[in-house]
Amino acid sequence: MTGFAAREGGDGQGNGWSWELRSVNGRGLDLRLRLPEGLGALEAPLRKRLSEVVTRGSVTLSLRVSRETGAQAAALDPARLAAALAQLAQIRAAADQAGVATAPVSPAEILSLRGLSDPGEGPGLPAAETLMADAEPLLSAFDAMRLSEGAAIAAVLAGQMDRIAALVEAAGTAAAARAEPQAARLRAAVETVLATADLDPARLAQEVALLAVKTDVTEEIDRLRAHVAAARALLAEGGPVGRKLDFLMQEFNREANTLCSKSQDAALTAIGLDLKLAIDQTREQVQNVE
């Protein structure tokens, strides 16, 4: 199920941040976190909290932290800065010795080098507790969007289930209508065979009965009706029912295939094909459900 939420915050101490949380459909749960350097300790609690909100889909959570100039300067590690300046001096000396001209390096370019600031949660980085508390409204907004989409998809699925139920009833009517003509054809076939061949009438009657059983679709229609009832119950239940619905759609498809293979009647076959199409369309929509 798709979802999106974004949020900005700050701690009043020169730190600002922005969250972005998005999800797309997926068969399992795939959590991807993009956190700034020095805030890796947030990954475990954020993963735990996300898994409490989402159970299916590909979810990406991004956090960007921005710091004011004063806060960034205060977070610089003097020893690392000195080492970086010494390395730059060595590079410039080697270039001069080789006769290679080098451009001057500005303070801003030096400050942009990675690793000059203290990677710990010291000055210049927001506290993990502050960020975790700020993530809660983000998760609430994200969940609200997914619930809204889920309600819309549930309404669509309910309509598609009504369509499937109507086709199942039409199949039941068509199956009942073909019963007498089919029996008449079988009786005519039996009479023809008995008149032209020396066969045991009892054995022939047994074979005809087996043929009638093989073309009987009563059980398939009964199971399709049961599947409709089960699907409607899941939709009414709410919550993460996507996997259950997906399994149920496989069972729908199995019964529809058997119905078509047993049909031996143009009207019933046409209904069976329409039923298979409706099931396929519903199954595609079920892939969007958590």
Automatic annotation (TrEMBL):
Its cofactor is a divalent metal cation. The keyword Nuclease applies. PANTHER family: UPF0701 PROTEIN YICC. Belongs to the YicC/YloC family. GO terms for molecular function: hydrolase activity; RNA endonuclease activity. Residues 176-290 form the Endoribonuclease YicC-like C-terminal domain. Keywords: Endonuclease, Hydrolase, Nuclease. Residues 1-154 form the Endoribonuclease YicC-like N-terminal domain. This is YicC family protein. The keyword Nucleotidyltransferase does not apply. Pfam families: YicC-like_C (PF08340), YicC-like_N (PF03755). It comes from the Bacteria.
